[in-house]
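Fill in residues.
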């Protein structure tokens, strides 16, 4: 039996702002609004449906995106150009650094709703190498 993630709902204070923010960083398109949702589709077909809810109801979530080396370079350039603080670690203790976990590169940043976003060039299943930061 094949199982694939089709979509997930991401809570936001402003669904358009959050959808456009992530789409811009990742070089993706914002889809057509459908009811309370504004979708951003990933290249593997998973839709991230941004839904506006009251700010006090938002619970921080973590979303990690596997990107190519070229995709990382492009996203990293957009992050720096926008002046977004980025970190090598999910606890936000290493600002201005990227990591080199499992022989790749990765970084963490926050979206407008306070969710932790991560871009990585190697999946965490690549446990052959010890994580490092720079």
């Amino acid at each position: 039996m094949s199982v694939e993630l089709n979509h997930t709902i991401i809570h936001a204070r402003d669904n358009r702002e959050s959808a456009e923010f992530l789409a811009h960083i990742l070089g993706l398109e914002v889809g057509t609004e459908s009811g309370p949702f504004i979708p951003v589709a990933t290249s593997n077909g998973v839709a991230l449906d941004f839904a506006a809810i009251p700010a006090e109801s938002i619970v921080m979530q973590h979303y990690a995106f596997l990107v190519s080396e070229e995709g990382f370079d492009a996203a990293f350039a957009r992050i720096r150009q926008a002046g977004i603080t980025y970190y090598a670690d999910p606890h936000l203790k290493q600002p201005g650094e990227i990591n080199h976990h499992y022989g790749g590169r990765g970084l963490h940043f926050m979206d407008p709703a306070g969710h932790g976003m991560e871009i990585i060039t190697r999946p965490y299943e690549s446990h052959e190498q010890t994580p490092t930061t720079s």
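The longest strand covers residues 7-12.
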